[in-house]
Amino acid sequence: MDCDHAGSPPQEKIPLFYGASYVYIRAQMPPTRSFDADVLVIGAGPAGTAAAVGVARQGLRTICVERGHFPRQVVGESLLPRANDLLAGLGLLDAVERRGYMVKKGALFLRGSERERFSFADGLAGDSATSFQVPRDDFDQTLATEARRQGVDVRFGQEVLQADFDNDSASLSVKDVWRDQTQTLRARWVLDCSGYGRVLARLLKLDEATGQPARVACFTHFEGDVRPAVDVEGDIWVCCHPINGWLWLIPFSNGRTSVGMVCDPAYWDALEGTPLQKLITQLQRDPNAAQRLAAARPVLPPQVLREYSTKNNKLHGQRWAVAGNAGDFLDPVFSSGVTLALESATLSADLVTRSVRGEHVDWEAGYTVPMTQAVAVFRAMVNGWYGGQLPDIFFNKQKLARIKSRFTSLLGGYVRRDDNPLARDCARSIASVHAAIATAAV
Ligand code: FAD
User: Fold this and answer.
1) Quick one: DSSP state of residue 45?
2) pLDDT, tens digit, for every residue of 383-402?
3) CA 196 – ligand 1 centroid, Å
4) Which ligand 1 atom is the nearest neighbour of the CA of 236?
């Protein structure tokens, strides 16, 4: 492909080998010292490395600036099968597979003695049947290393402080956090993948009310839990807590299990003790978690997060776009975060590449609309979960049976399939199935 550097003469093309495909760049780069790169990506979480690889694979010079130093611990450890497709599309799946992460074949929902397992193999035709449970310190480092191998200039310890955009260029003011020096990087486009750093949301005032009630999450890693049988060992467990909220158990292949609770802040704040004492008390109150963790012990200090939902009033603008949590994030209950981060990274990387090449790009139709629709499906599921309708549906085997493959597909992250009626109008579908259950119960 051509790197579109304005005013440069046509150059001879030479092939460069990127993973499995050949791409072409100009043999002699044009004298554009004023541009440090074609695209600057902020943040090296899954959205950032995926987006950076997406543009670099198409021959654009890409710098990814990350304020932290890897490996570092982050929450968001259970992937969905759709994530595997997206990783494969970017040439990242092989590197992930080589890490030997726990293979996740399903999601088990538990409420007291009730349980319902969704096996991803029973989704809709064409859906992938498995995904991974990933310790994020290792996963994010794996993606960053692979991004470098695919040509991305990944720079750690670089914090973006300021961004400026004009008709022709985008520039970032970047501080080297060790040397305490600041430099300006200039490019044709910026992709903000800064997650909760929310760089452009803060600088451009993009924050919007999420519509989600405040919730609190407390989580840590345990060792020594009782693992289920091998075939279902990698399932995520989602336990309806008997008093308030829900619990997650995410088993890793390194012997650790991520355990967390999400509940109302008022309930959490009224509990006595340290965060770890509160978490352990709540785990003991749930019969399923209590049994599985009876002999387990925590191996990391717990973290408490509040008000983690985010929403932007815009996902793109003049020479910028946001992807992953730097845009919209709802709730952890269906493990949608990383998968949506990869979905938005893949879409935006393609549109940024075309924009940099000088093509006319309809960002609303190509980005805002599909991402808003994808998030809307998960929003309907999240609202149905906390409203109590989805647990009623999931634990009603008779009603669920006819539509289970459709729900399984959504739980696998396939929220953009037009051939799934549940994805087309999720909120209404949940309401009508739930109404049928309520009528039958009268
Ligand atoms: P991040 O992973 O947050 O990466 C952003 C990167 O940008 C960071 O490395 C950060 O250091 C960097 N950065 C920030 N500011 C700057 C700056 N100024 N300059 C340079 N770099 C910067 N998702 C799932 O898929 N599965 C789950 O099981 C799951 N569980 C969750 C549980 C909880 C309690 C919560 C709150 C979320 C959960 N999520 C889960 C969501 C998941 O954590 C996020 O969706 C995911 O990490 C988003 O990836 P990202 O790349 O957009 O952002």
Assistant:
1) S
2) 999 999 999 999 999 989 99
3) 6
4) 28
